[in-house]
Amino acid sequence: MTTRITRRDALKTGAAAAALGLVPGPLLAQEGPRLKLRLLETTDLHVNVFPYDYYRDKPDDTVGLAKTAALIKAARAEAKNTLLFDNGDLIQGSPLGDYMAYKKGMKAGDVHPIVAAMNELDYVCTTLGNHEFNYGLSYLGFSLATAKFPAVCANVLKPEGTTLVRPWLIVEREVTDEAGATHKLKIGVIGFVPPQIMQWDKAHLEGRVTTTDIVDAARRYLPELKAQRPDLVVALCHSGIAGGERKGGEENAALHLAQVPGIDVIMTGHQHRVFPGKDFEGIPGVDARRGTLHGVPAVMAGFWGSHLGVVDLDLEKTAAGWKVAGFKVEARPIYERKDRTIVPRVEAEAAVLATVRGDHEATLGYVRQPVGETKAPINSYFALVADDPSVQIVSQAQLWYVSTIAATMPELKDLPVLSAAAPFKSGGRGGPDYYTDIKPGPVAIKDVADIYLYPNTVRAVKVTGAEVREWLERSAGIFRRIDPGKTEEQPLVDPAFPAYNFDVIDGVSYRIDVTQPSRYDADGRLVAPEARRILDLTFRGQPIDDRQLFLVATNNYRAGGGGHFPGNDGRTIVIEAPDTNRDVIVRYIVEQKVINPSADGNWRFAPVPASANVTFLTSPNATRAIPAGVKATPAGDGPDGFLKFRLDLSA
């Protein structure tokens, strides 16, 4: 009887040797030539080239491809054979991106600043991220046209059935083995994007493209790619890592992709996290220390240029071709945090800065333009635990805008209008400086962009009072369940729950009972049908009528199904506005001239005994900005530079 040992089985058996460097593969009777190949990844750059925070209008050592470029240079100096890839989300995500899209524009022959910077660094290939589609297909085409590197994506299809860009490609490189001999290496590259782009950017994409499931697309196109007999296959998967059973259509499908035969390395992204790392511990099939998904080496290099992903492969030549005999995966940061202080590990590369300096300077002028004045400070330090002015101003602007449109539509003009908005900059993976903090006085475009980060467009949905209640129940999933009988520390906010899914709905009043379990799980599935966290939900002072119809102002992401909120699957949309939510805020401030965005306190927590030690992490700067009515006491240092507060929810 012959036992067949696959390459993946052999890699799994090498766990004990991982600490020594490259994880060994199987012992072979006769070794062939050995070759070391280093694969490098950037992901989710979001037009961050300069180490600069345009929102705060100050340098920032935690971001910027110009900083990552120094890591790239060092990584190349350490290895004879290197290839650099990008994993998507290039052209949107910072005021520099907005300046290009909304002010300067792109036409044939123009070079987008992120592309100019990447052209300087000799990238092999990129894939399409979901944010590539935020400004439409024409803008995307102009942006990629001058890239010196191709893009691949296998699961975005044109109406005739061909892919929008090539699904895969073969890259041939001359490499040097450990004995100094040269070889031709063929690397296959295939790319993927979350299929949810059809919801998130429906206005730009409907009728122009369709998407397919990531795993299905891999199974469709990998045989074509493998027919070219590549020595190695790299998947550029702009999709994150999540556990659970595969059902198809997953947004974060990298773990499922790893089970498709024929892929040697997976480069992931989209989640703005780091892999290998503790963010993904405890997920079946994931080795968060070695950096594998079902045994396949994988990496996720943070976001905004914060890290460089490095996958070192030890390849061995056999009669059947080159085989992976060992590997090592790491994500190298551009900075470290010591005692709440950012300590840069590298300096920005001058040649990369030079490629975008003109557009950088123009962006500074653009974001500094004043549009109005605020009488009150606008900050988000407590946006996750109290009604908040940074969310309030968004709601007020959306309400003003949608009410104006609805008044012109006979079928909608008599419906009451509510507004749903969420905090965007509220710490989390962005760190203890990742908060909105606008002082009283002039309000500039950069301030509005700081309040509303994304280029979403306004939508209004028609839902029932019952759906409003369930919408809020889903939103309340951000809170961990608090045991009122415990006296040991209980953190209130679930850090895995995205802050942009914590919708506050203005126009109604309610309380949130965090002693109850969440009705919905992390994926929006109803898991506790008997639980009710939303209490005393009222409209105009009366208990809400579950059958009453409402218009709710929101954005295209939420209305199209983003976050899996009840009442939001695209079918309830009744107003599709052409304006971005950010532009609506600017127009609202221009119209009002002077704003006073104080929170109206339409939601609060149901009482929890004062003996319960409920805690919350926020910025150290929050000590000077505790909102009226919030009982919060500093309780020592939290991790990663945050400050811990104890919350008294007894009244």
From TrEMBL:
Alphabetized, the UniProt keywords read: Hydrolase, Metal-binding, Multifunctional enzyme, Nucleotide-binding, Signal
Database matches in SUPFAM superfamilies: 5'-nucleotidase (syn. UDP-sugar hydrolase), C-terminal domain, Metallo-dependent phosphatases
Enumerate the subcellular locations listed in this protein's record, separating them with semicolons.
Cell envelope
Domain 5'-Nucleotidase C-terminal span(s) in chain numbering: 386-566
| Known catalytic reactions | a nucleoside 2',3'-cyclic phosphate + H2O = a nucleoside 3'-phosphate + H(+); a ribonucleoside 3'-phosphate + H2O = a ribonucleoside + phosphate
Q: Boundaries of each Calcineurin-like phosphoesterase domain copy?
A: 38-273
Q: Name the predominant localization.
A: other
Name any cofactors this protein relies on.
a divalent metal cation
The entry sums up its family as follows:
Belongs to the 5'-nucleotidase family.
Q: Which PANTHER family match?
A: 2',3'-CYCLIC-NUCLEOTIDE 2'-PHOSPHODIESTERASE_3'-NUCLEOTIDASE, 5'-NUCLEOTIDASE-RELATED
The name this protein goes by in its record: Bifunctional 2',3'-cyclic-nucleotide 2'-phosphodiesterase/3'-nucleotidase
Q: Which organism is it from?
A: Chelatococcus albus
Q: What is the lineage of its organism?
A: Bacteria, Pseudomonadati, Pseudomonadota, Alphaproteobacteria, Hyphomicrobiales
